[in-house]
Task: inverse folding
């Protein structure tokens, strides 16, 4: 396993995209749950780059009075874009540890730039209960963690106050799974794009494997880079309570691990983020431990690896 790439852990404890405090503790919760050691046990070399915090330099306002912490958002975008430019390259797989989902607005255009410089296209698998397709003008809550997808594809209305995406991501290169909470304004605008969406009804009806395998085939045929964006609220809150935007009826344990194992089998994943983990809302760290287990599956952990040395009776029980 010596040929496995370096994994760079990047802490991004952003906590201003919503109104529920606690996501800034997400990176440390993942560290405490043993993320680095699990990956090392799988044969990877892991470098923890520490936490990166954005400090706004000036106040920013918008005509929509609901919007809050806009200057923090702008500073975060600049920080993560610069981080990707200076410290990340094709020889490593970055795992961005959030923080709320505003972090995606910072690194996704930067990853797309990195892919474009090598003649590749950036693809995104968006695992989330929400489409995060609000604009600054449309959001009624003003919570900016609901805007990153609209931002990264270059939707008009952001560049008046935010740095424009260096390389916007093509909407048809985005696949969303697990969606089950969409505002009417988002629904109307997202239908005008070519973003691929598989909501929970589709997953209940057809399962997770067929749409995921079809998307992975598209990525493979295009020779693209694949980022996986894992929002904790993608999972059912009964098993993953540590999220401030919980929506009932999410993906279950077996479905989540199947997705991760299929992603590993594809060999296509070039980056990952873990967003909206709020340890303040967790129960004895069980959500953080679950996420670490899912990341391990994404990077090659197999069921038989955890059953070595057990008797045949124990293996059946597992």
Result:
């Amino acid at each position: 396993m010596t040929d496995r790439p370096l994994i760079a852990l990047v802490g991004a404890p952003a906590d201003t995209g919503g109104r529920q405090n606690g996501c800034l503790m997400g990176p440390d919760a993942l560290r405490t749950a043993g993320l680095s050691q699990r990956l090392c046990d799988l044969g990877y070399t892991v470098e923890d780059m520490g936490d990166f915090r954005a400090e706004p330099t000036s106040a920013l306002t918008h005509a929509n009075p609901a919007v809050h912490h806009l200057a923090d958002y702008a500073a975060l975008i600049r920080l993560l874009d610069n981080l990707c430019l200076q410290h990340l390259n094709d020889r490593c797989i970055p795992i961005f540890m959030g923080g709320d989902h505003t972090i995606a607005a910072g690194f996704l255009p930067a990853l797309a730039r990195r892919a474009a410089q090598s003649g590749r296209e950036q693809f995104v698998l968006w695992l989330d209960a929400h489409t995060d397709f609000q604009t600054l003008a449309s959001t009624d809550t003003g919570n900016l963690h609901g805007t990153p997808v609209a931002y990264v594809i270059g939707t008009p209305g952001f560049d008046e106050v935010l740095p424009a995406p260096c390389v916007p991501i093509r909407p048809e290169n985005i696949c969303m799974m697990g969606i089950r909470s969409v505002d009417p304004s988002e629904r109307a605008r997202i239908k005008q794009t070519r973003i691929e969406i598989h909501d929970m009804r589709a997953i209940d009806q057809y399962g997770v494997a067929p749409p995921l395998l079809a998307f992975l085939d598209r990525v493979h045929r295009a020779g693209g880079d694949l980022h996986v964006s894992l929002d904790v609220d993608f999972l059912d809150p009964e098993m993953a309570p540590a999220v401030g935007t919980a929506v009932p009826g999410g993906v279950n344990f077996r479905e989540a691990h199947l997705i991760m194992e299929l992603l590993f089998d594809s060999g296509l994943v070039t980056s990952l983020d873990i967003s909206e983990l709020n340890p303040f809302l967790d129960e004895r760290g069980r959500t953080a431990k679950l996420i670490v287990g899912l990341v391990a599956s994404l990077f090659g952990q197999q069921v038989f690896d955890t059953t070595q040395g057990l008797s045949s009776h124990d293996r059946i029980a597992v």
Q: What stands out?
A: Residues 70-87 form the longest helix (18 residues). The domain at 6-317 is CATH 3.40.800.10 (Arginase; Chain A). The chain has one domain: 6-317.
